[in-house]
Amino acid sequence: MTNLSDFTDDEIDQILDAPGAVLKGATLADGKPGGLRFLLETAAGAKVFREAQVHENDFVRSVAVALRERIAEQSAAEEEARRNPASQVGVAAAAAATQEAATVGVRPDPEGATAEAVELTGAAVTLLRARADEKDAAAYAAWVYRIAEQVAEAASTKEGGFFSRRVKVSAGEQDYLDRLAAAVGR
Which of 10, 8, 16 is closest to 121 using CA atoms? Predict the structure, then answer.
């Protein structure tokens, strides 16, 4: 069985960052923003994350639990920063504030987000295939792809104009799923 402790901190970050990037890429893949659509897709992704916390594969389960813990730590750090602004003094805090200010109000880049997700996921799966148990690497790849698939299918969209029919997966989402499938070897 593969353990996260078998990897360096940078490799663990790569393994843990890929599912979130896939979720983000899937929510932006069709390029049609909308509040209800975003909620439906995010809820679908969250469901897949929750299911992974009781996944039959121990490695996928450990990744999902590590993600949950990482999010809890980030939330606690953000809460501490709100309660004690002086704790955020320093170069790293200034850089984070500058980066945040630069992105406030900027529309997300669907092509950039999907390309980043495909690249990050491909690298994570390649790493796992090289250093992890074969079953664990395959289960991780299937799980990450399932996140994208469930998010893409969560909200139907109209293809074409006003009088066009609704489709479950848009052309942009299908393109993203195809590129992600190639990256994970499906």
Answer: 16
